[in-house]
Structures are given as C-alpha cells and as structure tokens.
Amino acid sequence: MLVLAMDEIYLLNSTRNILLAGVDEAGRGPLAGPVVAAAVILDPVVPIADLADSKTLGQDQRNSLFKMIRENALSWSTGMSSVEEIDELNILQATLLAMQRAVNGLAMQPDEVLIDGNRLPRLSIPAQAIVKGDSKVQAISAASILAKVERDKIMVDYHKKYPDFSFHLHKGYGTRQHINEISQFGILPIHRKTFNPVKMMIEQQS
Q1: Would you say the pTM of this structure is higher than 0.85?
Q2: Is residue 107 part of a domain?
Q3: Range of 51's domain?
Q4: Is there a domain that residue 131 lies in?
Q5: Per residue in 20-57, pLDDT tens?
Q6: Which of 168, 126, 136 is nearest to 21 (CA)?
Q7: 45-54: long-range contacts at Cβ-Cβ below 8 A with a sequence spacing of 24 or more?
Q8: How far apart are CA 12 and CA 1, in angstroms?
Q9: Cα-Cα-Cα-Cα dihedral sign, residues 101, 103, 109, 111
Q10: Domain holding 159: CATH number?
Q11: What pLDDT does residue 113 have?
C-alpha cells in the first residue's frame, strides 16, 4: 500500500486541478482579544520556500512570509471571532466560527479544506482535520502564519489604545506581566470574561 505524506497528497491533488485550502488559527489561549483564523490556497506553480508552523518562526520570518503568501497564493482570507463571541459560545465554537468565516471569505471555492486540529467547522465543502497539520501541510503552515501576524497586529493596536497594558509584548496571553497589569489597572472590554483568572477576579469583585 502506498502511503503519502500530506504535502505529497497536496501536490498530487494540485496536478489533478483540485484546489486545496489550508486553515489554521491563532489566539485560542490568551486572556484578551479575538481568535483569528486564516484560509490559504497556495499556487503549486509558485512555491513559497521555508513555510512552517508560525510558532517555530521568528517575527521577521513570519512578516516576510506573510507578505509572500498574500502576494503569491491563489487565494487567502482571514476571519475572526470577537471576545463577546468567545464568551458567549466558548473558545472552541468561536474558533470553529472564525475558521468558517475564513473559508467563506476565499475569493475562489476550494474542492477540499485541510484544517489544523481534530475538529471541523460547519462547511458546505469536503474537509478533513489534521492533527499538527501546521507542521505537515504547507497550506496550513501558510494559514498559521497569516493568522498569527494578523492577530499580532490587532494586539499592537490594543497597546496603542490601552498603553498601560503591554499587549504588543505578551499579545494578551496570561503572563505574569499581563496578570499584574490586570490587577493594577483593571479588566478591559477586550478581556475574555469566561477565562481564568479574569473570571475569578470578576467573581471576587461582585
């Protein structure tokens, strides 16, 4: 039996004129800000070197690849779920919703969607979930880079809006610095009220 790696499947399907979209997200774990997803259809005729899981890349590498992906992919799109949607739906459902929005935003409809993780959003086209897909499939790697860079931009903007908080550094994650900032300056509208320790702080204040 012939066993193909996921990238080999991607290339094989590309030669058959099957459009594959990779999907990934950024921002499931932070205490603040939206969760952002991206969908990317790479052009097999214009390969992009050095694509990898965004978490393994430095900021300069991500920014450079971000530009190359947007310039050379056949289609790309981002979608997000707000803090309010995260608190209302829970982070899993909000993440799946952001992924759905990213896929629906593509300028061309793929024949199949490859999604990082083990859960699928509701889509009208065939899809499969791939655990650790961001390190196995180039299109998912590309999506992880777009999602990460887009979300980081949002967090930098939050730092400008709320200069007492170092969102440009911790990106909303629950670092000691961020928790100290919440204790000193209070809970912001962009904080996820259902995430601890924010949830516990609210309960203690009530």
Answers
A1: yes
A2: yes
A3: 6-205
A4: yes
A5: 999 999 999 999 999 999 999 999 999 999 999 898 99
A6: 126
A7: 46/72, 48/72, 48/138, 48/142, 51/138, 51/141, 51/142, 51/145, 52/135, 52/141, 53/134, 53/135, 53/141, 53/144, 54/24, 54/26, 54/134, 54/141, 54/144, 54/145, 54/147, 54/148, 54/149
A8: 16
A9: negative
A10: 3.30.420.10
A11: 98
90-147 pLDDT, tens digit per residue, is 999 999 999 999 999 999 999 999 999 999 999 999 999 999 999 999 999 999 999 9
- Write out the two tokens for 177: 């610095």
Say how far apart CA 15 and CA 141 lie, in whole Å. Answer: 20
Q: Retrieve residue 28's tokens.
A: 């499931």
Report yes or no: 139 and 40 within 8 Å, Cβ to Cβ: yes
Integer angstrom CA distances of residue 116 from 157, 158, 197: 27, 27, 28
Where are the strands (E) in the chain, listed by range?
20-26, 35-41, 75-81, 112-116, 127-130
Q: How many domains does the chain have?
A: 1
Does residue 139 come out as left (phi exceeding 0), alpha (psi in the -120 to 50 range) or beta?
A: alpha
Tell me the residue type at 29.
Answer: G
Question: What is the rounded CA–CA span in Å between residue 188 and residue 157?
Answer: 14
- Is 87 among the domain residues? yes
What count of other Cβ atoms lies within 10 Å of the Cβ of residue 16?
7
The answer as to whether 90 is a domain residue is yes
